[in-house]
Amino acid sequence: MNAESSAAGLALTDPGRFAEGPPHELLDELRPRSPADSGKGPTGTQLWLVCSHADIAAISRDTATFSSWAGGIFPHPDQVNPLDVNRNLLLFKDPPEHTKYRKILQTAFTPHSVAKLEDRVRRVVGETLDAVIADGSCDFVSAVAVPIPLRVLSDLMGLPAADHSRLEDWIERIEAAQLSTEPAADTDVFVEMALYLQEQIARQKASGEESLVMSLVEAEVDGSKLADEEILLFFGLLIFAGNDTTRNTLSGGMSALLEHPDQLELLRDEPERIEIEIAIEEILRWTSVVNYFCRTRPSTPRSAAARSRPARR
Fold this sequence. Notes:
This protein is about 55% helix and about 10% strand. The chain has helices spanning about 5-10, 25-30, 55-60, 85, 95-110, 110-115, 120-135, 140-145, 145-155, 165-180, 185-205, 210-220, 230-260, 260-270, 275-285; strands at about 35-40, 45-50, 220, 225, 295, 300-305. Strand 3 and strand 4 (about 225) form a beta hairpin. It is globular, with a radius of gyration of 21 Å.
């Protein structure tokens, strides 16, 4: 691997590489060489770019060799929060702990539970689009893609509508921390969220509300309740990851349809031919809003940043 290719691989950790969409030509060049030497990470750790579907699938299944827990999922182990704090997040766990904690969210998002949300989601979407129609035009991101997932998740967690601006501020600050070169750049946000969450738990307990927040408070793993820090990080994960990925998928999906008007026309004019469920799955695949995650080999400090064109991670 020459220095130019190594530098190109390392540059994929730069968000600017994806400003105009996935760099398919560069990925096509690097894929036959996968894993490609991608130079050193922020802490001096050797990085390897894995960009073939087969390699990514193998690494995803082999958590004993390629761990999320050992070095985190970002190029810097302490990105956003210190690694020891981040390890309480589901994304940073390996089986069997990952499997145990995933069940907590699965109970809240079973097909039956999600079906009960349909009327609520339709109401939020309808009200949002009605406002756009009344205005006559809009910035799709700020008027549609941002408020819809924020309102839906807020409702799901029993949070007051008056707090939407505060939640949006936290999301923006967590996003900035993800892009920051400074470690643990997000600690202040989680302190604010912890105080807010304590207030919401007390309020919802007193009112007897049923919400995802109360589901986390009452959840058990191996017969034990979640610790306060674990509840906070679950809450933070839902607030950020649930919003960020959904709004980026909405924005990227609309952008793709506008760039391919024949597909937009087909979806609009022939809904019986193109089922909306299929279109949603294709938008999820096409937009792939998470560019890469890292895995670390516990025996040797080697991280693999993974990105694949045909598969969604």
